[in-house]
TrEMBL record:
GO terms for biological process: nucleoside metabolic process. This is Purine nucleoside phosphorylase. Residues 22-268 form the Nucleoside phosphorylase domain. Keywords: Glycosyltransferase, Transferase. It comes from Adhaeribacter radiodurans. Pathway: Purine metabolism; purine nucleoside salvage. It is an enzyme of class 2 (transferase). The purine nucleoside phosphorylases catalyze the phosphorolytic breakdown of the N-glycosidic bond in the beta-(deoxy)ribonucleoside molecules, with the formation of the corresponding free purine bases and pentose-1-phosphate. Homotrimer.
Length: 278
């Protein structure tokens, strides 16, 4: 808790008490949303006390503070994955800090493999529910009562009103938006054909290696959550190809304008713009 407080205090001081209303996590290949932000502060993760330090990446991620569609937002450009060797507590540390900075809702994006045969590469899938197949989760251990309860409810993890609004935005604007269940696996290897079949049989529509730990931490703190997957490759019998990171990035890039549009429109629907100081 002290580490969370240290990081929060540092950010409050570095941003002149910038008060973000919404938090956003950008997934693999989906960083371009940042181009739509009127950036006020950009703080590298490695300057923030106790933030997980990037191991392999050549450049560390950044926490970006600014206005998106005239709403005050904080954006994680780059996230932490369990497969990188971080503990689950480290993976969700930034989410807890964003909540302590005052965010009222969390928006998450990721790249995922499509298990539902009705999907196509570069579709968006609004996440309606999830299955956690990560080997552990961020709430294991002594409960941090200041953050949330010991046994948080998971009966409605993804905010029903925002799912409905996203559907509406998709229909009105003709966006290729599907809905479905996301299963989170540890990775970092992709799945075998038998594993894809298994994941489909247990009820998942898309598979990826992130998001669920962050969402669990967010729901522990009772933050309303919205999450969307970009389907970067198809994992259905007959349509499985060798997965190459470059192809995943290309499919994500193709879907990026729709994803950015969807999140921006959705954020606009969440409340009035912040008053600009004269
Ligand atoms: N499996 C797991 N994670 C992924 C995939 C996949 O097929 N595609 C993108 N992220």
């Amino acid at each position: 808790m002290q580490q969370l407080q240290d990081a929060t205090d540092y950010l409050i001081q570095q941003t002149n008490s910038f008060a973000p209303v919404y938090g956003i996590i950008l997934g693999t290949g989906l960083g371009a949303l940042v181009n739509d932000i009127d950036i006020q502060y950009s703080i590298p993760y490695d300057e923030i006390p106790h933030f997980p330090v990037s191991t392999v990446e050549s450049h560390s991620g950044k926490l970006i503070f600014g206005q998106l569609a005239d709403r005050a937002v904080v954006v994680m450009q780059g996230r932490f994955h369990y497969y990188e060797g971080y503990s689950m507590e480290q993976v969700v540390f930034p989410i807890r800090v964003m909540k302590m900075l005052g965010i009222q809702k969390l928006f998450v994006s990721n790249a995922a493999g499509g298990l539902n045969p009705d999907f196509n590469t570069s579709d968006l899938m609004v996440i309606t529910d999830h299955i956690n197949l990560q080997p552990t989760n961020p709430l294991i251990g002594t409960n941090k009562d200041a953050l949330g309860p010991r046994f948080p409810d998971m009966s409605e993890v993804y905010d029903a009103a925002m799912i409905q609004q996203a559907r509406q935005i998709a229909i009105v604007n003709g966006l290729p938006v599907k809905t479905g269940v996301y299963v989170s696996v540890p990775g970092p290897m992709l799945e075998t054909k038998a594993e894809y079949r298994y994941l489909s049989l247990i009820g998942a529509d898309a598979v990826g290696m992130s998001t669920v730990p962050e969402i669990i931490a967010a729901r522990h703190m009772e933050l309303p959550c919205f999450a969307v997957s970009v389907i970067t490759d198809m994992c259905v019998p007959g349509r499985i190809k060798k997965v190459i990171l470059l192809d995943i990035l290309e499919a994500a890039a193709q879907a990026e304008p729709s994803m950015t549009f969807l999140i921006k429109e959705l954020i606009k629907m969440q409340g009035p713009p912040v008053e600009k100081e004269m």
